[in-house]
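Q: what sequence does this backbone want?
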């Protein structure tokens, strides 16, 4: 038997454990292709173990399926299984392999696995670096195209036009030509590689995959590959109408005369029990097939086949590959290679840390390390303090600002585009005071402009997509926008308004657009880099309170309306309109939207009658799944009639930090003992809060990404100056943090 390679400790920093993987055992050689699309491996940070030590059955032979383990240049854990395929004429056979990536796709092989070796061309967004300004998919000739992730650069002709020639941005010495024109894009593509191969993309009806409920093609799949003398193979797909997907069905080899020679590859599927919806720039995908077998044939005889079996994961019931069985002629097989999935366990411990000054606490990444730090100030003087997070603790309050006007809550944003959070306050005469972060503190106070009517009603967001936070000033009947130059603010635009205005990236182009709601009618002005396009009607909303966040994880800001009956009405942004998704049940008397499990989708956290409840946007659902309740009131001081007030507007007037960073804020009406038995799921608290220093308690709780990993959020509770902190483990549980907290800053 081949020697097993243990790499559990080697990959611990990658968030996945792969151990006992057998390498070698087969004389067939193969090459891995590319990585799958990047999605979350599992909200519980599940690990993977592969092994082949299984007893032989009567139809089994000694040996093992070949597999190899490595780490990519991007730090991804990768396990590759080359598939042995019967050679076609001239050796023209696709190089197929099963690829596992620790942050890989959730596709036709379940979570983490994908098939490498079949190529495709897709539409892709414009970017500032490549095009001078970002833009989302417009589903017309303004879009750009990518070949297996590589941007195509036009060297002759109009981009997307008939006969236009391209090269890949990173030179591959391939010649690419777009053919025809239909519905805002080419009909097909031709590619000639430097080794003499000729590839066709989208030349057959089944290899062109259209946008959901539309005629525009979003993906051109390879349908034919041939060599210099004409040997090659055709790829046949099953295009699934209504799901905007296609899966390979057959691959047939042919000779120089174009006649099929009998070598073929057949793909068999079943229906996934965990059908999910995937979103991209207004396009909706519902992949519902799962590979059960791949068979390589020589004529009518099966030369080699691979069988795949799955189970349902604990994290949302997603399909997980558990065995791969390689078989030869006569259905004689190696023992199955088994994949065992595991989830880590967390210990529970509580710590307390000193609260902020009387002014309150605001989050920000003040040193640019990707972790959320805290800033506090005193209402009675001109000083401010920063408490930096290192991922496992805070370093202690440090006085960093000495000239901040009192009674002014600072706006925290990156105003100069250096990746660090800066501070801004508006003085009563309209002066904009800015303190730029230098990574260890702040530079001297700067005045970035003055307007007599510009104070007290501003918030920061990136309007022109340059990476620097701009200012939006909302006045009665008007919205004024000021762009950041990195050293001041310049006037950009003014727009009359007569309804409720919110800002968000509704088309996923990296720029904040303006949505105005008048009598439940939705009008959007899309930011274009130099201002805003004329308003366009996007649909109608039901009455109720509104929150703006990314519900489905496609990068666009969606709208969630809670109606008078407590039902959630969810509207997805399609990039050019709102699409009504569904309605969902009551979670709590007062709810807030926040990404609790780090999957990029907004979840619901609600409080009612002494119970916190969470609803998660599950991978296979189009909405929220009501998780078990988390009871927070217990013991001698239980007070179920006292409710939390959930409020996302504390962060910014539009909840922009909530939408972008998955942050959460709420406050309680009285100091109480909070907690639950450690065996329960949810957030753990358990301390009798009291009044400190004779100050009135502030009773607030906050959630931020203090660990810097972008996953489940960290939360701290504050009642006056004795806060405590805990971390969500990403799926209905918590991992209390164990930092060494310092006391609050003293005046």
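A:
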């Amino acid at each position: 038997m081949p020697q097993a390679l243990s790499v559990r400790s080697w990959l611990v920093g990658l968030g996945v454990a792969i151990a006992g993987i057998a390498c070698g055992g087969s004389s067939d050689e193969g090459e891995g292709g590319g990585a799958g699309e990047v999605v979350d491996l599992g909200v519980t940070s599940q690990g993977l173990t592969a092994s082949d030590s299984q007893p032989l059955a009567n139809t089994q032979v000694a040996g093992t399926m070949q597999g190899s383990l490595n780490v990519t240049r991007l730090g991804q854990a990768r396990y590759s299984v080359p598939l042995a395929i019967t050679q076609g004429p001239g050796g023209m056979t696709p190089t197929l392999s099963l690829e596992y990536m620790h942050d890989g796709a959730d596709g036709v092989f379940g979570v983490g696995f994908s098939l490498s070796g079949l190529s495709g061309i897709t539409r892709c967004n414009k970017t500032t670096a490549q095009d001078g300004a970002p833009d989302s998919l417009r589903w017309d000739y303004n879009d750009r195209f990518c070949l297996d992730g590589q941007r195509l650069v036009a060297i002759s002709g109009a981009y997307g036009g008939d006969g236009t020639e391209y090269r890949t941005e990173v030179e591959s010495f391939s010649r690419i030509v777009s053919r025809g024109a239909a519905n805002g894009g080419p009909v097909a593509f031709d590619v000639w590689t430097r080794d003499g191969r000729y590839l066709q993309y989208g030349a057959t009806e089944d290899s062109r995959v259209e946008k959901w409920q539309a005629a525009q093609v979003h993906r051109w799949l390879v349908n034919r590959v041939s060599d210099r003398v004409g040997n090659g193979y055709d790829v046949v797909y099953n295009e699934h109408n209504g799901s905007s997907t296609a899966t390979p069905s057959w691959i047939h080899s042919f000779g120089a005369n174009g006649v099929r020679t009998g070598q073929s590859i057949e793909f068999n599927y079943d229906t996934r029990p965990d059908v999910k919806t995937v979103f991209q720039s207004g396009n909706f995908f519902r992949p519902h097939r799962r590979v059960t077998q791949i068979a390589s044939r020589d004529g009518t005889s099966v030369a080699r086949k691979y069988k795949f079996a799955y189970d349902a994961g604990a994290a949302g019931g997603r399909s997980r590959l558990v065995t791969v069985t390689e078989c030869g002629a006569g259905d004689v097989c190696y023992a199955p290679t088994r994949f065992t999935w595991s989830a880590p366990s967390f210990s529970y411990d509580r710590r307390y840390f000193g609260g902020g000054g009387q002014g309150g606490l605001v989050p920000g990444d003040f040193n640019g390390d990707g972790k959320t730090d805290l800033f506090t100030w005193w209402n009675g003087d001109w000083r401010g303090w920063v408490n930096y997070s290192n991922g496992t603790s805070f370093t202690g309050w440090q006085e960093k600002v000495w000239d901040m006007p009192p009674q002014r809550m600072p706006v925290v944003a990156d105003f100069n585009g250096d990746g660090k959070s800066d501070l801004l306050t508006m003085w009563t005469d309209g002066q904009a005071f800015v303190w730029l972060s230098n990574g260890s503190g702040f530079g001297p106070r700067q005045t970035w402009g003055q307007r007599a009517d510009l104070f007290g009603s501003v918030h920061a967001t990136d309007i022109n997509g340059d990476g620097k936070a701009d200012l939006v000033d909302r006045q009665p009947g008007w919205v004024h926008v000021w762009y950041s130059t990195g050293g001041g603010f310049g006037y950009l635009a003014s727009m009359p308004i007569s309804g409720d205005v919110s800002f968000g990236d509704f088309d996923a182009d990296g720029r904040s657009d303006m949505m105005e709601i008048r009598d439940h009618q939705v009008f959007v002005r899309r930011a274009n880099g130099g201002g805003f396009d004329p308003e366009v009607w996007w649909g109608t909303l039901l009455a109720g309170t509104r929150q703006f966040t990314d519900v489905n994880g496609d990068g666009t800001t969606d709208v969630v309306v809670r109606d008078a009956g407590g039902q959630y009405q969810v509207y997805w942004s399609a990039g050019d309109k709102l699409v009504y998704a569904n309605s969902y049940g009551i979670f709590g008397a007062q709810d807030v939207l926040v990404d609790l499990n780090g999957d990029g989708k907004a979840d619901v956290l609600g409080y009612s009658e002494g119970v916190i409840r969470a609803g998660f946007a599950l991978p296979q659902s189009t909405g929220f799944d009501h998780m078990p309740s988390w009871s927070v009131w217990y013991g001698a001081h239980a007070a179920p009639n006292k409710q939390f007030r959930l409020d996302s507007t504390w962060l910014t007037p539009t909840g922009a930090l909530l939408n972008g960073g998955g942050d959460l804020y709420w406050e309680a009406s009285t100091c109480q003992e909070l907690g639950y038995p450690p065996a329960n799921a949810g957030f753990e608290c358990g301390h009798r809060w009291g009044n400190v220093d004779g100050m009135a308690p502030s009773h607030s709780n906050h959630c931020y990404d203090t660990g810097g990993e972008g996953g489940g959020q960290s939360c701290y509770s504050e009642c006056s100056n004795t806060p405590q902190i805990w971390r969500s483990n990403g799926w209905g549980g918590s991992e209390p943090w164990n930092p060494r907290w310092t006391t609050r800053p003293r005046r």
